Amino acid sequence: MNRRVYVIAEIGVNHAVPSREAFKKAYYSEAGQKLLYKNVSLLHCTTAYPAAFEESNLRALKTLYQCFRLPVGYSDHTLGIAVALAAVALGAVVIEKHITLNRNLPGPDHKASLEPKVFYQMVQGIRQIEKALGSSQKKPTSSELENQKVVRKSIVTAGNIQKGELFTEENLTIKRPAEGLSPLGFWDILGKTAPKSYQKNEVIP
């Protein structure tokens, strides 16, 4: 029976170069690399129980990805959930975290493990971060487009202006909402003649 096996390789107490050479021996071809990408994830790890925050070296996740071009993850032995969440924000697609029913039990793993309630909080946090990461494109979101008119500003009068009076930095200002001339045109309108009389806080169309 054919069965697909997904491999999660944890790289603890190791350098990137020896690990890369080991993978080269497994697959040399382009097809082999594609097969690796579909079936293998590399987990960065600090082999200590618990691992110190300052030894987590999460930026190594980027190094692993650049070196292998494979999905990367993090095997977290630190206390709490902060480092695991940070790893996801830095590109980890797999998180390994030990779970225990009681962190006070004897043995090296329990102190660095999470009890079920906190483990659930970690998973929820990861799901929220996954949503928050979005895409690499910088463009207005749908909610921003809805609020665009409210949050953007217009050129308005800072006081009463009579018809024929010149627009100046003193008699003009910028306020919300965006119902009139954009602030981008502020310097263009200075020195021009008011085509009509304006009351204070009136929008310049």
Q: What is the fold's blueprint, element by element?
A:
Layout lengths: L6 E5 L4 H11 L3 H10 E6 L14 H9 L3 E5 L5 H8 L4 E4 L18 H18 L8 H10 L2 E4 L14 E4 L10 H4 L16
Parallel strand pairs: 1-2, 2-3, 3-4
Antiparallel strand pairs: 5-6
Give a verbal description of the structure.
- By secondary structure, the chain is α/β, with parallel strands linked by helices.
- It has two domains: 7-133, Alpha-Beta Barrel (TIM Barrel); 142-189, no CATH class.
- It has seven helices and six strands; from the N terminus they run E-H-H-E-H-E-H-E-H-H-E-E-H.
- The protein has helices at 16-26, 30-39, 60-68, 82-89, 116-133, 142-151, 186-189, and strands at residues 7-11, 40-45, 72-76, 94-97, 154-157, 172-175.
- A four-stranded parallel beta sheet has the order 1-2-3-4. Strands 5-6 form a two-stranded antiparallel ribbon.
- Helix 4 (82-89) links the parallel strand 3 and strand 4.
- The chain starts with 6 loop residues before the first strand and ends in a 16-residue tail after the last helix.
- The model has no long low-confidence stretch (mean pLDDT 88).
- Average pLDDT: 88
Radius of gyration: 29 Å
Q: Percent range for helical residues? A: 25-40%
Low-confidence stretches: none
* Tertiary shape: elongated
Distance between the termini: 74 Å
Q: What is the C-level CATH assignment of the largest domain?
A: Alpha Beta
The CATH superfamily of the largest domain is identified as Aldolase class I
CATH topology of the largest domain: TIM Barrel
Figure out the total of helices.
7
Domain AFP-like: 154-205
GO molecular function, one term: N-acylneuraminate-9-phosphate synthase activity
Keywords: Transferase
Pfam families: NeuB, SAF
